[in-house]
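Minutes, project check-in

Agenda point 3 was the complex the collaborators sent over. CS summarized: two entities, 737 residues total, and the question is how they sit relative to each other. Sequences were read into the notes so everyone works from the same version.
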Amino acid sequence: MINRFGFRISPSSAVNLDKVDMERFATLCRIEPDAMRCIACGSCSATCPASRFSGMSVRKVLLCLQRGKENEALKMLNNCMLCGKCTMVCPRGINTRHLILSICRIYEKEARQ
Amino acid sequence: MREIILSGYSDFIIPFMIGMIFVLSWCGIGAVRIILQLTPADRKKFFLSLLNPKIMAKNVRDWFCDCLFHVKLWKRNKLLGYMHSSIAFGWFMLILIGHLEVMIYVPERVHRIWYPIFFRYFVAVTDSTMKGSFFFFLMDFFLLVVLSGIVLAMIKRVRSRFFGMRRTTRGSLTDLIGLYALWSIFPLRLLAEGFTADISGGSFLTKSLNSFMHLFYAGQMNVQPTWWAYSIALGVFMCILPFSRYMHIPAEILLIPMRNAGIDIRHPRKGFTKLQVYSCPGCGVCIDACPMGASRPNIKDTTVYLNRQIKRNNKRRIEEITDKCLLCGKCSAVCPVGVEGDKIRIAQRSIRQYKFSPDYSNIASVMSISEDNINVTSINKDVSNINNNKVIYFAGCMTMLTPAIHRSMTKILEKAGVDYTFMDKDGGICCGRPMLMAGRTEQAKQMVEMNTEIIRSSGAGILLLSCPICYRIFKEQYRLEGIRIMHHTEYIDMLVKEGHIRLDRQDMLLAYHDPCELGRGCGIYEAPRHLVSSVGRLAEAPKNGKESICCGGSLGSLTLSFDKRRAITVNALANLKECNPDAIVTACPLCRTTFNRYSDIPVNDIAELVDRNIIEEKHKIKIS
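CS then shared the predicted structure for the full assembly.
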């Protein structure tokens, strides 16, 4: 009924950073200082072959992790094929492949949220 | 010959015997352990290969050529080859002739293993030796050969450049003890035999040393100490051998039959890997070969140091070294022993612990959409329904990033009138090689299976690839029986040879760069060279073919950062530009992108050059 008018009630997407455990992101930044060099230009998203399967984009993954939305990030990473295209196009020269591997080493599925 | 010591024993043999028993039992137990660590299938393969006369003949040949004559080192540098083969072959002949002497002159002592080593101490010369003209001469001759090798080895420690090596390995403590023990064995032997030469007989070397010595000393007081010293040097060398690089001497004897049996690296530490690690002689040939050597701090990350760290089980350094490597495979190509540095590294990466692993099972449903995109509507699962002339073109991730290559490829295919489908025109699945290089075999396998299904269902008889990275995994891991897997250099070369396209030859000097995965990885050297010389004049870089230098862009390295790769790329470019070419040609999209970043002359793919120089014909017969 509500949809008919173009409106619907969706769950709030607000992130309460006070409740987010940023410990793992801090670990990631320690191992990969490059993570903070991302300028979110989206070159990686544009070239990623996995983006059409899981919406993968290194830019978004970093953003999600920064905001504590770990499950969303891992859902995208689920189809990463490590092909290295994002590394090739990154204007900041970020070693995205190693960044992704480090995320896989630090984060677990069913993360505490 | 007459025995002068009736018991056939003297106390000084004790150090030698301790060393001998220790090293024999160590190597025996080690060999059994390595064979037990092989997978049952590999073990069966190994034992069956020992019964195969053809493989056995190859084993014998390799034992002589590799262990004794060091043929591969001779090919690298004559002096380096002489140094190694003089010590190895000379020592082998000393042992062999020593045994022959015992068998002929005192056959009742054959079962005493120290007898051939200290023969001259126990016997006195009689008429039966023809005044020492034959065996004694040979013994002295080979002792001289070994001594000349030792002198060269000493010079090499100081000036390795004379031997064609810019850098050599830094020895560990045990390596150095072993080295000095090895150096002292032969001069001490000469001295010991020199002191007894007036009783036991000798030839040009020992006899003249003996008369020279008699100018200063008289009597027998020096005999015992020198024989003791000789025995102690042997004992020390053999006791330190398992803990030093000299372990390669016994390990290589087992490595050769295993390699010829076709056994591969399966475990990061055990079995064949362990054997390869212990077969590493630490010669340091891989240090000069490694493209990472372009910047100094990387020298400690070459294969020879990896092997040392694996022996020490230093986990932190092993991880650091394996993750840095570009996996270009040059160390394996130049290794005189055949240690496969790249495969050992991939095996090390495979034991990394990940908390999260990608899974591609959701992709299959999505792929049916993309299959429509590539016009594979008539899915035929029947393998016999393959059209041999139909081509399925898989550009691969890296080629999609360099559209010039796949655009040129499709133009060439159209001009040649080939019936083809472009598999990943609207995006595809990665071939799996980058994932495999990161050591995540399970994930790579999933991609391999999905791609296999798509390719099989297309009904094409030829799988055409533009990227050597894809090409290698398609050749090695995919099960695509009945489908010819071709890199575009091979395929275009075939089109040219069969007359489907004609090329116009330009007056341009073109330097060809061998991509690692295409050259060393798959052994394709001729087809691209033939193509390059049919569109221009081919110039060969000083380091080419098997020894071409990695461009530095390789996906193999996990940790090398963007700016650290620069030195590698610049170094590789300098090698290619040595012959002043007008342009650089390569056959890999990744090499092309990497070189283009820093090159001041154009870098092209072969496909682009061919497309530019095709002579268009009016009437074309379709290949079908």
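Noted in discussion: Residues 322 and 345 of chain B are 5 Å apart (CA to CA).
Follow-up: revisit at the next meeting once the mutant set is ready.
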